[in-house]
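Narrative of accomplishments. A recurring question from our advisory board has been how the design workflow behaves on a single, concrete structure rather than in aggregate. To address it, we present the structure tokens for one chain from the evaluation set, followed by the sequence designed for it. No filtering or post-editing was applied between the two.
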């Protein structure tokens, strides 16, 4: 049983996945209360599914980028559980989790992450039949007003899009599609799916070596 933890931003999510089935998932608006809410919600999810920490076989965590506090708390708890129980720990990036929920599309996808001070981080992804969504660019940090000028072909934009962002994207009219609200939310169930792929491929390092990523 794999426990997935994502606290990288103001929205947190946890899930339990047995490798075949998503057994349970819970997401909530944590704002600045990650420390207070995370452990109780994990305990509640385990209890509701009749599972104990001793039955876990792996831990997955969103390693960022994101808010300093959010990423640090999630990674610290995941590392602590993995080290204490001698479990493999798999780290997945914030935007990879977000795009894993998006349906196949031939257009490029711009995944958005709010990084504070009216800035966003974004990366461009392209769908590949064999491998799903794959990043074409590294994370770039810009102001919202700069993004429309960087979209030069029909595209999808998904993620943490502010009111200002929606207004700016609207100026591109039919060139940009902004999906329905549910597609903009990261879910730990998709984090778990990605982690199982890495776990089966043996792409797992020592928990102590997992390095969190922070938006700069």
């Amino acid at each position: 049983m794999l426990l997935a933890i994502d606290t990288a931003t103001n929205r947190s999510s946890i899930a339990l996945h047995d490798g075949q089935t998503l057994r349970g998932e819970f997401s909530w608006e944590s704002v600045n209360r990650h420390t207070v809410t995370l452990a109780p919600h994990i305990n509640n999810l385990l209890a509701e599914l009749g599972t104990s920490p001793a039955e876990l076989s792996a831990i997955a965590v969103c390693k960022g980028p994101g808010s300093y506090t959010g990423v640090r708390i999630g990674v610290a708890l995941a590392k602590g559980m993995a080290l204490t129980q001698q479990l493999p720990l798999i780290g997945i990036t914030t935007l990879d989790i977000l795009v894993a929920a998006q349906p196949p599309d031939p257009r490029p996808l711009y995944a958005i992450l709010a990084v504070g001070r009216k800035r966003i981080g974004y990366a461009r992804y392209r769908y590949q039949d064999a491998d799903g969504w794959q990043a074409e660019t590294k994370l770039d940090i810009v102001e919202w007003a700069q993004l429309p000028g960087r979209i030069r072909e029909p595209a999808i934009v998904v993620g943490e899009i502010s009111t200002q962002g929606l207004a700016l994207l609207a100026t591109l009219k039919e060139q940009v599609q902004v999906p329905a609200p549910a597609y903009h939310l990261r879910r730990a169930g998709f984090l778990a799916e990605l982690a199982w792929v890495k776990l089966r491929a043996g792409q797992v390092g020592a928990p102590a070596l997992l390095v969190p990523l922070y938006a700069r």
